[in-house]
Amino acid sequence: MYGVQTTSDALQKFAAHRLKEILQSLTKKPFMAVLLGMVMTVAFQSSAATTVLVVEFVNAGMMNLGQALGIVLGSAVGTSISIQLIAFQILDIALGAVFVGFVLYFSGKRQWKHLGHSLIGFGLIFVGMSNMSNASAPLRDIPEVSIALSQLGSYPFLAIIAGLILTTVIQSSTAVFAIMMSLAGQRLLDLSAIVPLVLGAHIGGTVTTLLTSVTASKMDAKRTAIANTGYKAAAAIMVYPFLPQFAHLIQWTTSNLQRQVANAHLLFAVLMVIIFFPLNNLIAKGLKHIVPDRASKDIPLKFQVIDEVSLEVPAVALKQANGEIRALGRFIYTKMMQRIPDILLSGSEDLTEEVVKAEEEVDWYYRHTMRFLAVLAQKGLTDEQAEESMNIQFTAKEFEYIGDSVMAMVLLTKKLHRENLRVPAENWRHLDYLYQRVTNNFSKVLDALAEGDSQIAAEVIREHPETTRIQRDLQFNFLAQCPQQSSLESDLKIEEKFRYAALDLINLLYQMDEHTVNIAKVVLGIV
Hints:
mainly alpha, Methane Monooxygenase Hydroxylase, Chain G, domain 1, 2 domains, 21 helices, elongated
């Protein structure tokens, strides 16, 4: 199990970006989607990881749901290829792979390090199988164990449930098949028990993804997970009445029991492709009726981009976190920053409440995005991924600071209006000049984040000294405004209150620009 997990994690780090690059060219033809599913699953050693990537591709508009279902079918065949490799008795070669992997892991080069790590995991799978096989040999001499395992063939439905539960608990169909091969190698399992166990393990390998998709905000995630489980459950129901004939077909392919385990998985996967692939587009349309899109009003506070299932693939999770943060920045700009002039000049209670509510949502998105990244950090990120995660967290914090500054301006304005103080149009004209510069810079930094444009980010940084000069000039002008000697004492207090409030507004606008510059530095890679 450790070998399977290690191989999966290392190959994801080594191959994720390369697979995404070839995606569009491979999915132009429908059958190529099945091939891509096979390649991805062999590379990742995880059909769950493949399903997560498929959902991301659909949501990004890079493929339709029908093509995604083709990849899901291909992932089952890809798992079969991995199991076929494990069925070979190559312990000596596996030990050699561990040694080569060890050398590559300590070679110092990052990409070779990931490849070396995957070779170590691949070799450990065979070492573990050898140990399990040797350790299970004495079980043949225990009548109760032999009888219990042999009777699984007499109760195929019970064997299917056993395979399903075991795979769900272990959360790795490859590891379950390695265990089955070890038992088969000691003649503790016969073919009549192997076939239903294989069917159950096929279904069990989809349960975790299905359960995880329950909390997914995107409907295509649910549809893909439902199809993944539905394909295997439906195929198992079709095969169940013909289990003896299916067993004879497998026996015809080889007399080696361990190889029969692998062949049973492969034949069942190929059968699914033959049955369901021609119907994929119809199935996709049916799923859209069964699992309709939600109205946006039903999910007021849920991630716009992130799906929790993406945690299975760090490269995808980071891409979604980046998209979520960009959406948060755009939300602050449209729902908070652009409301400042109207609130200052009109003192509208409705607008004020809208900004207060928006700030609460900003806090919610910030907290939950940071939690998502904290969970992701436990997945064993590469150095580049860890750095990207830190940059996302830094940017999220700067956005939250900007949201707090806007909120402070709104509360200050609310206080002024409560005391029947209004911002004179002439004074707002001076403040508006600073406000326009700050909001324009913020809009630019959002574009720089979305496009990864270092030139736009550099422009934002270059303009900051001029913003500083304007801020200081405004501060000096407001401080230099002396009240008229003839003014009443009450008027003097009002002017003094307004002057200090104006200074606070200037400082808050300037702080927003400072945080904007910090985000621009992230884009340039100098933070």
